[in-house]
Amino acid sequence: MRSTSALLYLSGVTVSFDGFKALNNLSLLIEPGEMRAIIGPNGAGKTTMMDVITGKTRPDTGEVVFDGQADLTKLDEASIATLGIGRKFQKPTVFENHTVRDNLLLALAGMRSWYRLLTAAPTKAENERLEEILSIIRMGPQQHMLGARLSHGQKQWLEIGMLLAQNPKLMLVDEPVAGMTDVETETTAQVLREVNKSHSVVVVEHDMSFVRALGVKVTVLHEGSTLAEGSLDQVSADPRVVEVYLGR
Ligand code: ADP
Fold this sequence. Notes:
Blueprint lengths: L7 E10 L2 E11 L4 E5 L6 H9 L6 E6 L3 E2 L5 H6 L2 E4 L11 H10 L4 H6 L4 H13 L15 H14 L4 E5 L7 H14 L4 E5 L3 H7 L3 E5 L2 E6 L1 H5 L2 H8 L2
The structure holds adenosine-5'-diphosphate.
């Protein structure tokens, strides 16, 4: 296993489904504190890559090193989660019958502490962190609203807040702006930029206005491998990227 200062390091990762290579010798390096956007056409391998990082899919070959030590390919999903990798899926799953505040408190206290939450007041530290997270996700005014009453955008921001409350070393975020309005998309970019001040993030997204608003390094996946890497302007000027996206 290679020694590296990277937070996350994928090398030579290949995943085959029935002989078809969804990932083909993929390499990726995420520095501590970084936020990286992963883009690529449908079928490029973005979801499979996230599944490999979280242990949902085991690669045929290659290594996945996290935090300088753990080779994730040897671990199951539950063990990987305890190392500090948190994932938010595309579809938001907040507790609809609980308020924004209680959703965040449950995430802060850990789901095992449900009983304590219902029977005891939050600690001072929990209350302080709760206020910080409400500010980061811009949902202070909605803190007493039930999950069920939130807009699609607000549910996504709340779920980002719930992930933040668990304080993972790396946050994986799957297509956060799918189905959002332009204004919600811009707000989501601002929320994630704020999250990135304290947390490392890998975000998969199709929406180019969102990726532009994030303003971070971009990795373009194509046919299971990295096609290009750099700023959005750099990769957009790459003729191979233009060909993949526009078929020219
Ligand atoms: P993306 O997220 O970039 O759209 P995916 O990682 O979902 O791409 O898929 C990459 C390729 O692998 C696609 O061609 C897809 O059909 C295939 N694939 C993904 N998961 C499976 C699976 N469980 N069984 C068979 N093929 C799969």
